[in-house]
Structure formats: C-alpha cells, structure tokens
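// run 5 | inverse folding | seed 20
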C-alpha cells in the first residue's frame, strides 16, 4: 500500500495546483467580502483529483461516504462521514486513505472533531493513512494554532497538508 499511497499523494499535490481562486473563497452577494465554503472547495478538489488519478488507479475516490448500514462498522462510525475516502469498495483490506478538509478559518473544536474521526477510521476501519487537509490563508495565526493542535493529537499515520494559495503546490507540514 505504501507505493499506492505515494502515487495518490503525488496526484493530490498535482490536483491542488489546478484549483483556482473561485474555489478558495466565494464572494457574498451584496458584499465585497469573500468567505470560505468548504463544500465548494471539496467539490473542485474531487474533480481535479479524479482527473489526475485517471481510470487505471486501482482504488475509488468517494466523497462523504457514510458507513451507517455497514454490518461491521455501524457501531464504531455512527454519523462520521469524512470528506474523502480512497478505497476498494467491498474489500476491508484495501482502505488506502481517509481525508478531512477544513478552511484555515476553522474553529479548533471542529479540527479536534475531525482529527478524532480520522483516528477512528485508522483504528477501526484500518485505513493505511489519514490526511488533515487545510486550505486557505489569512493574516491571523490560525495555521500556528492548527499546527499546535495537530502536534498534540497526531501520530505518524496522519499527515497535515496546507494548501495555502490557489494554483500552487500545497505544503506537507507534518507527517
């Protein structure tokens, strides 16, 4: 799975370089204010990632796949729906990566909840790796707070990735 993950991660980096300004922040009607909308960013990331992965990639990329009626997992997972899973449907031995996406403006409580979700998918569903994916940039110290929280919580199976700017390569902050 190591080589498959490395290939996927390379594709993720390449896909991010195709995400434009509009998908980072959305203009609010009647205002000049731009705001983060996680769903808009995620849908574009999904689109770009599918384009880069191609049809021969042996795993499936699924967005917000719930496991509510899964016979083995429903009690562990409950209402947890990560933003993306990369897996082979029907094969519990081929769960490659689970991803949670948050804008830089996310509250620390939401980040903590998502880190817990990633850990559950690593422990109970046996995903090979997890990615906490942050996008956007601001003038505050949010990225430092996020990095601090990540250091407290994380282990070597969860990566912290920051896509700071549109059309640019994201940074791997922590492995």
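// decoded
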């Amino acid at each position: 799975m190591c080589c498959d993950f490395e290939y996927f991660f390379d594709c993720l980096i390449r896909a991010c370089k195709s995400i434009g300004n509009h998908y980072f922040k959305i203009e609010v009607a009647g205002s000049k204010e731009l705001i983060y909308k996680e769903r808009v960013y995620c849908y574009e990331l999904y689109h770009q990632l599918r384009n880069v992965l191609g049809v021969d990639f042996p795993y499936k990329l699924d967005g917000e796949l719930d496991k509510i009626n899964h016979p083995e997992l429903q009690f562990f997972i409950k209402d947890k729906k990560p933003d993306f899973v990369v897996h082979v449907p029907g094969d519990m031995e081929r769960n490659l990566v689970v991803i949670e996406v948050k804008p830089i403006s996310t509250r620390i409580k939401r980040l903590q909840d998502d880190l817990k979700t990633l850990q559950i998918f690593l422990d109970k569903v046996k995903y090979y790796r997890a990615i906490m994916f942050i996008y956007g940039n601001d003038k505050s110290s949010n990225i430092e707070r996020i990095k601090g929280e990540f250091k407290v919580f994380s282990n070597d199976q969860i990566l912290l990735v920051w896509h700071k700017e549109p059309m640019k390569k994201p940074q791997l902050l922590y492995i």
